[in-house]
């Protein structure tokens, strides 16, 4: 258990650092008008999550999942875990549940962010 937690922590630190540096680099390339850095990181992270799931299953490397999937890719982008969950539901034939998960996740997260802004502005004003 402790080893898994330390693996997640190490991977998370590395992934979050790479997300930060990638975001800076991409923003320097394309400018500040559009969140291209986060978009690229989300897409690349989701690709890496899909590739790692297959690699780990075929090569018996699932023991690396806490380090790579939860830690590194979770720190790099939480969007990759969300994408994996949505695709897993879809591949299980639970298309309606997958669609519901995507819609509730995206809309719920945006509404929660608005709510957090509203509450914080009210408390801090």
Task: Report on this structure.
- With 125 residues, the chain is mainly alpha-helical.
- The protein contains 5 helices and no strands.
- The longest helix is centred in the C-terminal third of the chain and has 30 residues.
String of helices and strands: HHHHH
Class based on secondary structure composition and strand pairing: mainly alpha
- Percent strand: under 5%
Major beta sheet summary:
none
Q: Look at the structure and give the mean pLDDT.
A: 94
> What count of helical segments does DSSP give?
5
Task: Give the N-terminus to C-terminus distance in angstroms.
Answer: 44 Å
Shape: globular
User: Roughly how much helix do the residues carry, as a percent range?
Assistant: over 70%
**Overall strand count:** 0
User: Compute the gyration radius: what is it?
Assistant: 17 Å
Features:
125 residues; mainly alpha; 5 helices; 0% strand; globular
List strands and helices in order, with pairings.
Elements: H1 2-30, H2 36-59, H3 65-76, H4 79-91, H5 95-124
Helix pairs in contact: 1-2, 1-3, 2-3, 2-4, 4-5
In short:
The protein is mainly α and 125 residues long. It has helices at residues 2-30, 36-59, 65-76, 79-91, 95-124.
């Amino acid at each position: 258990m402790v080893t898994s937690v330390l693996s997640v922590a190490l991977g998370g630190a590395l992934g979050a650092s790479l997300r930060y540096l990638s975001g800076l680099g991409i923003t320097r390339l394309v400018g500040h008008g559009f969140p291209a850095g986060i978009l690229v990181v989300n897409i690349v992270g989701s690709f890496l999550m899909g590739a790692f799931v297959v690699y780990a299953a075929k090569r018996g490397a699932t023991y690396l999942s806490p380090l790579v999937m939860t830690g590194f890719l979770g720190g790099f982008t939480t969007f990759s875990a969300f994408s994996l969950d949505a695709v897993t539901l879809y591949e299980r034939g639970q298309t309606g549940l997958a669609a519901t998960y995507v819609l509730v996740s995206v809309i719920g997260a945006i509404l929660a962010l608005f709510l957090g802004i509203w509450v914080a502005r009210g408390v801090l004003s």
